[in-house]
Amino acid sequence: MKKKGTTSPLARGWIKIKKRKTAFVSLIILVAICLLAIFGNALYAYDPTQTNTSIRLQAPSSEHIFGTDNLGRDVLARVLYGSKLSLSISIVSVLMAMVMGTIMGLIAGYIGGKVDSVMSLIIDAICAFPTILLGLLLGTVMGSGIINIMLAIGIANTPYFARLVRSMAASLREREFVESAITTGLNHLEIIGKYILPNMSSVIIVQVSLSAASAIITESSLSFMGVGVAPPAASWGTLLRDGYDFISKAPWLSIFPGIAIVVTVLALNFLGDGLRDALDVKIRIDG
Amino acid sequence: MSENLLEVKNLHVAFFQDGKLADVVRDVSFEIKPNETLGLVGESGSGKSVTSKAIMRLIADPPGKITGGSVMMDGMDIFALPEKKMREIRGGRIAMIFQEPLTSLNPLFTCGSQISEAIRLHKKCSKKEAEEQAVEMLRLVGVPSPERRAKAYPHELSGGMRQRVMIAMALSCKPSLLIADEPTTALDPTIQAQILRLIHDLQKLNGMSLLLITHDMGIVAENCDRVAVMYAGEILEIADVSTIFHSPMHPYTKGLLKAIPKMNEKVERLYNIDGMVPGFNELPKGCAFSSRCPYCKDDCASTPQRLEYVSAGHQVRCKYCRNLEQEA
To answer: Is residue B100 situated within a structural domain?
Structure first.
């Protein structure tokens, strides 16, 4: 479909992202983090679960770059291991929030009227809970566990997507091209699929990257407080929690998972901002 | 009666405003014969677009509501059709083009794909055939190098080109009626003339009727067979185009024609009709134009006026219209 001289909106966005240094570097870092999460443990010499009490709490050295923990496990191996859970919880929960929020937002925004009022009320009600509190509540009620924590973070993030999609759907619905699409005989599902959703995709993409960042923080906080990922499984949050007991003796236990969290969250936020600049321009009306 | 392609009878459309229904279109009746062009003129807010949207059943409910009347297309009652049948009519039998070519195309898809989508909606054909037809349509509406333009995104085309794309899309399924809602308002005058010429040519080629909505009397004079003059939601006068221009009967039509600047006359100030169009919640019981009419009589504002024949094919909504000449 693509030809010289004509560029699709997504291709234009990609060109713009490449021009933005922070966003592009963030993207590269994120890809690297994901690759490390997937392949890191397989490539790294140390097993994240292998205990060895003879090398407890060793400071970072050439042998163990990030040092060792209270059971003699290699911290780098633990961080790599933790990244799997932290990232997958973040991704799955945000995708969940995206799907649920988009459906709710579309129903509210596209149908409008009383449906909109009721939907907005539900959305606002979920929003009224602080994310952490909602996570704590759901974590306590449903019990800690990876699926539950994904659900909790997903539900907590849903209203942000729902609000965004609702307002976009409500304004897109009034656009001339939607009206002219109706006059060519399209039905509502086709209108939503071809005219409403594609035209808000850039906004959703930006929200995904920002929500993914906040999901990582939420997961870490919940795990830190003990309602998140439970041992023996480990996420960056549980690593922080484990290291907390030795913070004065062996700060590297907390520092390295902390750095991993900060770098990932920062990269996601920078990428989100860059994407917003590159994509989240108002729908182009004229060339 | 069956010779009419479209028959609008006593159409009433109302909109909710501050919890009350305001009648925006009142008692509008007209008909369009095959191959005929009917001009619908009136100032902004006179209900022209609402009338055209009611024909396509596009009035959003709420806030709008069709409160009475009927629209017959080819003998089918538009308001009684199920939604599925209605979608076949939209784009298939009646097509519409809007005044905003700049924003009437989906910015995320190529022009060609949008046209071929419209084609595939109403005709059974393969994607490839539809794409070829889309290019053919673009050629027909005078888009240079149509193969290349079909692959272009709307933002890569000028306003005139985009309106041509819209026309190509509207005509791709050979509708028997085209509703053009101020198709050239957003375009500059030279392009305006080209687009109107194009619509006219295609109308002849396809044997299609046209409902041309405009507020430009010049466009009406050049393009229409008959004219309906709308004011504050009512039709005040309907006649063929030469009658409207040479012997208008309604004071409002006269005022409109007087307001056209003439090339060969120098005037200090252009003529305008005094006053403003009344809001839809402050309309008088009688003639809607009474508050601005220079010939207004005592009972004009209180007694409703009916659209009556003054001669064959010429209807006027003013019972004093025959006596105006002597008075003036």
So the answer is: no
